[in-house]
Amino acid sequence: MLTHLSRLSPDAREGLRDIAPVMVAAMPIGLLFGAVAIGKGLSPLEATLMSLLVFAGGAQFAAIEMWGYPVPVWAIVFSTVLVNARHVLMSASLAPKIGAFSKGERMLGFFFLTDEAWALAEKRAAETALTPTYWFALAGTLPLAWIGSSLVGALVGALLGDPARFGADFAFTALFIGLVAGFNKGRITAVTVAASGGTAALVHVFAGPPWHVLAGAFAGILGAYLAARPEDAA
Amino acid sequence: MRLDPVTLLTILLMAAATYGTRVAGLFFADRLALTGRAKAAFEAIPAAVLVAVIAPTATGWPETAAAAITAVAALRLPLLATIAVGVAAVVVLRVLG
Questions:
Q1: Please, what's the b/e burial string for A139-169 (b: 16 or more CB within 10 A of its CB; e: otherwise)?
Q2: Mean pLDDT value of segment A47-74
Q3: In this complex, do A46 and B63 lie within 8 Å of one another by their Cβ atoms?
Q4: What value, to the nearest 5°, has the Cα angle with vertex B82 and ends A136 and A44?
Q5: Radius of gyration for the alpha carbons in chain A, expressed in angstroms and rounded
Q6: Do B22 and A178 touch (CB under 8 A)?
Q7: Does A39 contact B at CB distance below 8 Å?
Q8: A68 pLDDT higher than 60
Q9: pTM to 2 decimals?
Q10: Which of A66, A203, B46, B47 could form a disulfide with A212 if both were Cys (CB 3.0 to 4.6 A apart)?
Q11: Assembly ipTM
């Protein structure tokens, strides 16, 4: 198989190379998602379908946290929009850098937009022109790891026992902290994190999901606005 | 293999909403040329939302301490190592706490 890899274009090879560590990181989290979804009452088919069609870990975990029967459909959809609102910023940021993409490649390609693919694509775009080949190799292959591990997690979840024993429930938290570090802009980020984290934790106690996301995000953004000096945003 | 209709509906709506957020930026890009405080606030959105999502999972002494340790690791280590540090920290702290 490795000899076939050498027949791929450099763009495709580099896309695969760049997403490989993210795939490895995503697998235990996908396993966790599958297992937790089963614990909340979903069938393996339902859990896997969610990973296939939604393909957004943050929103999926938030939805699973709120899951119950009867399913709170609109609260979950609202939560999904809130948690995923940042995608708008990411696609807006990439929009001027995808001149080489056809309309179809944009509409299909951006289905695969994730925090990690976005961050890597931005880095790539700063060095060289972003090509559809690179993007699809980078972003389009990640679902394999996510969907595959979700399915496996759903099938064996019951056998693993309580994820908390292995700290596996904290893996998602640690991943997001790692991603936030990638957005770190120093002093303002510290203010944002403190304001958002404190507010969200508090609101979660009194009002529950999804309001804690809305309240925390608002507090974090307001904090950044107030903490910024004109020269900070240069 | 069960596929509950309400569950399926929820998943489809989640999928539509998520895809909507992913392509929306392609259409709004030109309106987002900000400066000054507004720019700083705009750039803070990803961090603000990500932290808000995980805040409830970092409550409790072992989890809060592990989150702090993870944050320190995150500024120095690659992503995979950060996750390993965080998971190890929370396991140790839960045993101690």
A1: bbbbbebbbbbbbbbbeebeebeebeebbbb
A2: 92
A3: no
A4: 60
A5: 19
A6: no
A7: no
A8: yes
A9: 0.82
A10: A203
A11: 0.85
Q: Tell me the per-residue pLDDT of A117-137, one tens digit each, with 9 for 90 and over.
A: 998 998 899 899 999 999 999
A144 touches chain B (CB under 8 A): no
Calpha distance A154→A138 (Å, rounded): 26
Distance from CA of A55 to the nearest CA of B (A): 8
Question: B19, A111: Cβ pair inside 8 Å?
Answer: yes
Nearest to B70 among A174, A192, A227 (CB): A174
User: For all residues of chain B together, what is the average pLDDT?
Assistant: 90
Tokens of A40: 């909340």
Supply the pLDDT for residue A234.
Answer: 45
The answer for A208, left when phi > 0, alpha when psi is -120 to 50, beta otherwise, is: left
Token couple for B74: 């995150």
**Residues contacting residue B40 through CB under 8 Å, at least 6 positions apart:** A185, A188, A224, A225, A227, A228, A232, A233
B88-94 long-range Cβ contacts below 8 angstroms, 24+ apart: B88/A167, B89/A167, B89/B65, B90/A167, B90/A170, B90/B62, B90/B63, B90/B66, B91/A166, B91/A167, B93/B61, B93/B62, B93/B63, B93/B65, B93/B66, B94/A164, B94/A167, B94/B62
User: Is A173 in Cβ contact with B58 (below 8 Å)?
Assistant: yes
Question: Taking 70 as the threshold, does the pLDDT of residue A230 lie above it?
Answer: no
* Other beta carbons less than 10 A from residue B96's beta carbon: 9
**Distance in angstroms (rounded) separating the CA atoms of residues A45 and B1:** 7
Q: How far is CA A3 from CA A6, A21, A133, A144, B88, in A?
A: 5, 21, 19, 21, 38
Predicted confidence (pLDDT) per residue in B25-36, tens digit: 999 876 766 778
